[in-house]
Every structure is written in structure tokens, then in C-alpha cells.
Amino acid sequence: MQEDLEDRVNRTCRGVAAFRAVELLYNPAPIVRDELSVQLAGPQYIDVIKKRWEEAVQRSGCDPAAPHHLLFAARARIIDDMVIQELQQLVAHSAAAAAQPEAAHHPTARCSSPRKENHHHQQQQQQQQQKGDVCLQVVSVGCGVDTRPWRLALPSCVAWFDVDQQPVISLKHKLLAEAGAQQQQQQEVRFPLKCSSYTALAADATSSSWLADLAAAGFNQTLPTVWVLEGLLYYLTPEQGAVLFADIAAAGSPGKCVVLASHIPACNLEANRSCPAGHSLAGLFKSWVGDLVGSDGQLLQHDATASLQQQQQLRAAELQSSSTAIGSSSSSRVSRWGPAEVSADLAVLLRECYNAEALYPYGLDYSGGKQLPEVECVVTVRLEA
């Protein structure tokens, strides 16, 4: 039984890394350059995904010379850019908020040049980063063997938290060590961290204790935070997904919390439920984006299973008691998510934003012999101030 679990963790985690590795090794114009993924995936899984890439090119009928990318490699790049954009916006928002009291005491500051003000904020950020202070956080839930802390051009003041179940975190720690990737402040590493600090937390995000564990690991509720849920939500039931967002709301600060979450359309869920029993993905997906976001753009609460507001208050109380880093205001507050922004399908985003075509990541046996019209999208939602 343990061997089966180990094999499954290896296949899912290293297989996803292999999409990025194949993109780098065999695509003449890779959309994501992830040298570390080559080490993490390993030759066996790279060979498997390379064959899938070749089959996808042949199946699509696209010009091999035209820009094209396997969809999961494209998803990585799309979310990469979203993470950087959201971090920059959070920095700008924090700088603007910090400047307001000063402007109140100096009325002439309202008439100053925006360029000068931006330069002043940039200087403040640079000074803060030079001191090594943490001013931003990223929490990647269901991280797998994602490599963003080692390959993104992150602000140096970012504290990065990876969260996944114990077998995944153990595998990732082992593979990173073998690849020569920095995890702490050791010297002479092949792949240095691009963030201020890195923490890998072994925790089940569907449990009642994971937020307390996150706080104990150093998460600071008062800091602006980007939460990344890539390739996670469709493995959760609608109720589990709703509770996860209630948890994040309990841990976030209004106006300083944004979630980037990939999700699937109804056609992908239907294909997953009806694909052959022997398929590696058969029956794994449990929800689609319509289970998360209502027709009015608001997050659904699924009150039939439990009172999410009560659960959120309970989570916040647990956080407050578990760590002094969690502000006391959260114990009595029920935060409200703003309207969700649901992107177009990843293939459409790739075409519109990167002028390239997406290659269908699954064999046609998965979807009843025909290509799905849509595969995956990204949901962005912010905690209202």
C-alpha cells in the first residue's frame, strides 16, 4: 500500500514538473524556462511527457514551426505572470496606504508629481528589501513540486510558504536536496532562492488545524499575501473548496489578500467522470468552477453542509490562539470576498496574451475521442477592504 502511494505521488508531482522540463528541453521557444524542473522530473517522466508532447503536436495538426506549448507549461507561465502582477499591486497599494498619513500632514504632497511619489515609494521598498525585511507573502497550497521560489523574479522581501501533504513535501525536500536547490541559507547551491525565506509545510488543507500550523511556521496575517491554488480545487468537493476559501479569509487581511486559483469547466468534469476506468485520471475530479463561483460572480458558500461563517470564526479563533503573529481583530471578523474574476480558457489566454497555441494535455481516450472545447481557467478573488 505504501509503495502504491509513493508511486502515485511520484507520478503526479514529477509528471507535472516534466511538462515544464519538456518545454525547456524540446520547445525551440519555451514559454517557461525551468532548469530546476529538469532535475526534479528526472529522465523517466521527461520521456513520458515528451512522447505525449509529440502525440499532441501530431494530433493538433498545427505547424511544428509555429509557437505552441503544452497546456500545463502554459498554465505555469500564465500563473507566473499573475503572481508577479499581484505582488506588484500589493506593494503599490501598501506604499500608497503608508503615504496617506504623511500626505495628511503635508497638504502640498497632494500636488506633487506622481512620478516623484512613485520614485519615493520605490525607494522605501528598496530600503526595506535591502534590510532583508519581509513585506509580502506567497502561500502555495497544494504546491506539488512547483519551483516558483527558485525561478521567478520575486521581490526580495517575499516570504514563500509551500503547503502540501506529508508524502509530497517529503518527496519535494528530497528532490530539491539532490538537485542542489537552496531551501535554507546554506551556501554553494546550484539553484538559489529568489525570495527572502522559504518554508515547506506538511499539512492537509482540508483539515481543521492547517492554519494553526501555517501560523506556527511563521505566516503573518498582517502582511499582504498572494495565495496560489494551482491544480488543486477540482480535486476537492464543492464543500471542501468553500471551506478552504473560508479558511483563507480567516487568515487574510482585508485589502491585502488575493487568491489565484485554477479550475476546470463543466465539460472537463464530465469527461473525467465518464472516461475509462483504467485511465490514470478517471474519477479524480470532484468539482468545477461553477461549484465555486455563482452566476452573480460571488463565491458560493454551500451552507447545506455547515455554516461557513461559523467555521471561519472558529478558524480565526484557532489562529489567534496559536500564534502571536495573527492579529486579534480577526477573531470577531467575518471577511467578505469581492467579486470573482474568471478568466477565459487557458488556451484562449495563451493565444491572446502570448500569441501561441495550446496543445491538449490529455489523450483523446480521456474525453471520448474528441478534444475538449475548454480545459482550465484561472479564478482571481480578493478579500474586500
UniProtKB/TrEMBL annotation:
Keywords: Methyltransferase, Transferase. Residues 98-129 are annotated as: Disordered. It comes from the Eukaryota. The keyword Transferase applies. The keyword Cell cycle does not apply. InterPro entries: Ppm1/Ppm2/Tcmp, SAM-dependent_MTases_sf. This is S-adenosyl-L-methionine-dependent methyltransferase. It comes from Tetradesmus obliquus (Green alga). The lineage of its organism: Eukaryota, Viridiplantae, Chlorophyta, core chlorophytes, Chlorophyceae.
